[in-house]
């Protein structure tokens, strides 16, 4: 579990907190806090700030300090060393595109909750054997989309997924209608042009629409 304010949150709590988890890449550090505030104002509290840019850790720290309503996670965890750095910056959970023995060890030693990426039934079973019952199907659409999610529900009924990769505001509802989907990940909530122009009201409007999508 991870602490947010006075609450201890499990990974399941985090995934079910919002129907959509925005995948955020910060190109300019000054955008981090107003972007987070715009998303939270629209009802989207769980934010995955990726390490795809040089400003990822600084953005996580800034959002964690300035936007206490947000549940801040770190995305694109591919190196074990990043776990402790992300937790020290204020991340309460992490998301990886895949899973390796080194990442499993880093998650356990750091105490950072991890949502590991899987793409096949074998990868999902291996992650389950390592103790991960919540997983990210990635890349979701190339992996088979809604059909893949539904197929996994039968033999792997104890797993819950956050599909990410290729999902849009037009297709998210179909994924969320699946019984084994807690939320979906997507980048459509943070269009690059809107962020560059500081169109925070527009981003809040996208967040409002996303927060109203059906989720179990």
According to CATH, the fold-level topology is: TIM Barrel
Overall 3D form: globular
- Radius of gyration, Cα only, in angstroms? 16 Å
Q: Name the helix and strand elements from N-terminus to C-terminus, one letter apiece.
A: EEHEHEHEHEHEEHEHHEHEHH
Helical content band: 40-55%
The N- and C-terminal alpha carbons lie at a distance of 21 Å
How would you describe this structure to a colleague?
There is one protein chain. This protein has 216 residues and is an alpha/beta fold. The chain has a single domain (2-211), classed as TIM Barrel (Alpha-Beta Barrel). It is built from eleven helices and eleven strands. It has helices at 11-15, 32-41, 56-66, 81-89, 101-110, 121-129, 140-143, 145-153, 172-176, 192-196, 200-211; strands at 2-4, 7-9, 20-24, 46-50, 71-75, 93-95, 113-115, 117-118, 134-137, 160-161, 184-186. Strands 7-6-5-4-3-11 form a six-stranded parallel sheet. Strand 5 (71-75), helix 4 (81-89) and strand 6 form a beta-alpha-beta unit. Helix 2 packs across helix 11 (200-211) and helix 3 packs parallel to helix 4. The mean pLDDT is 95.
């Amino acid at each position: 579990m991870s602490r947010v304010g006075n609450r201890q949150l499990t990974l399941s709590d985090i995934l079910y907190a919002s129907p959509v988890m925005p995948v955020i890449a910060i190109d300019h550090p000054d955008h981090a806090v107003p972007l987070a505030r715009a998303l939270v104002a629209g009802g989207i509290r769980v934010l995955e700030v990726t390490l795809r840019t040089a400003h990822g850790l600084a953005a996580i720290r800034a959002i964690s300090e300035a936007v206490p309503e947000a549940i801040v996670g770190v995305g694109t965890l591919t190196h074990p060393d990043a776990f402790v750095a992300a937790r020290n910056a204020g991340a309460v959970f992490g998301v990886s595109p895949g899973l390796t023995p080194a990442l499993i060890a880093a998650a356990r030693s750091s105490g950072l909750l991890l949502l590991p990426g899987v793409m096949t039934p074998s990868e999902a079973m291996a992650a389950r054997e390592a103790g991960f019952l919540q997983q990210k199907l990635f890349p979701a659409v190339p992996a088979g989309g809604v059909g893949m999610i539904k197929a996994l529900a039968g033999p792997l009924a104890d797993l819950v997924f956050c599909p990410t990769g290729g999902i849009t505001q037009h297709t998210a509802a179909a994924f969320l209608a699946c019984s084994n989907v807690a939320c979906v990940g997507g980048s459509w909530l943070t269009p690059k042009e809107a962020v560059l122009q500081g169109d925070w009201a527009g981003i809040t409007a996208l967040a409002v629409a996303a927060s109203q999508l059906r989720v179990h």
